[in-house]
Amino acid sequence: MLKLKHKVLIRRPVEEVFQFVATDYFQNRPKWAPIPKEVEILEIPEGPANIGVTARYRSEDQWGRIADTTFLVTEYEPSRKLGIKTETRFAEHQPKRKASQKAYAGVSHTSATSLFEPVEGGTEITFVNVLWFTGIGKIAGWFTERRVALTLDETLEKGREAAYNIKNLLETEVGLPPGKRPLSIRRSWVIGSVYILIFTALLWVHGAREDLHLLPDWITTLRAAMIIMIVVGFLALVVKGIVQSSDIRRD
Q: CB under 8 Å to 122, separation ≥6 — which residues?
């Protein structure tokens, strides 16, 4: 189970923000979270969101697998809270699946909660998203969660982008200038930069070992550390590639 959380401040009254984001959720969602061309709308409500209201979409992933996603409004508290659960499962008809391949399995679930709070200067929205999988076994589920976790930075970035789309749509509507997005630094960039800096420092020390008058034991330890870093880096890349390209199917 994976959990993502982020906040945004919108310079509009909470009633107006809630109307746009929650009450008219299904009508306005394409404005701040554009639906990709490969997504087909199967069912969308015409009226306002409320507990029990549903919507359905069909999409195709990067491996050509078709999946249906159902949205269900589970919580609706005016000017306070909106809760939506989604369930995504593979469609029975898969045109791009080979005859020798087994049926795709696994169901992904999300629980998305938006909390609205009036604050000085406007409204603060807290977005909380929880993701989990069923129907694919513990091992397959673990690999699937790791695949998602490896792209966590990208997922967070998309969430922040949607949040700031909402902010700019609502604020520019009343003549306020577009807000500037805060600088976001991806975790993978930080880890990669630190790894490169440490490895570069080790290379420099090894190259200057005579000038630094390092003892033989220190040189041996230094070389062992460099080898370990190379092996760990290689394994990390291999695991990332395997997990990201994992294609979960029913046994």
A: 9, 10, 11, 12, 13, 17
What are 204-243's pLDDT values in tens digits?
Answer: 888 888 888 888 888 888 889 889 988 887 777 666 555 4
Burial pattern 125-155, b for ≥16 Cβ within 10 A else e, equals: bebebebebeebbeebbebbbbbbebeebee
CA distance 127 to 165: 14
DSSP bridge partners of 126 = 7, 115
- Are 206 and 226 contacting, i.e. CB atoms less than 8 angstroms apart? yes
Q: What is the pLDDT of residues 61-94, one digit of tens each?
A: 766 778 888 999 999 999 999 999 999 888 777 7
Q: How many whole angstroms from its chain centre is CA 163? A: 13
- Rounded CA-CA distance 164/133 in Å is 28
Name every residue whose Cβ is closer than 8 Å to that of residue 184 and which is 6 or more positions away in sequence: 156, 157, 160
Model pTM above 0.70: no
Q: Of 89, 85, 64, nearest to 76 (Cα)?
A: 85
CB within 8 A of 220, min separation 6: which ones? none
Cα separation, 246 vs 203, in Å, equals 35
Alpha-carbon span 73 to 55, nearest angstrom: 9
